[in-house]
Amino acid sequence: MTAARIDTPLGPLWLRGTDAAITHAWLPGDRAVDWGDEPGALPEARAQVAAYFDGTRDAFDLPLAPEGSPFQRRVWDALRAIPKGETRSYGDVARGLGDPGAARAVGAANGANPIPLLIPCHRVVAADGGLGGFSGSLATKEALLRHEGTWPRQGRLI
After folding, report:
1. So which residues are the catalytic ones?
2. pTM of the model
């Protein structure tokens, strides 16, 4: 495993992975973590995260290898299809998976996402227009949505 610390406008973001793929990410506001920063590690990920935060990149094109159940991986694939500047409700994602009754399960998979930001779980919000949950801090989720121009949704702050 290799690790990279990337300074962002929200604070440090840590990525961990192998030469083949990113396996984990920790956003600012998550529980404390310090995986270190190996010089030269994950150079393409560093470049893409910097471009995302400076507004010149809308999507990440990095090999990802999240570990999870088949259902979780289906949800995470669906999240990667949500474009920057758009949000979906947990129910929207469940319906897109062909299982309209699975909104809570989608929420659980969202919360278990091991690679937040790169798998954009922050783009999933509550059906009533509120932020919903987030594996990191709600302040981080709100800041990411504001950065992408999708918050406040329907004029609501929270």
Report:
1. 121
2. 0.91
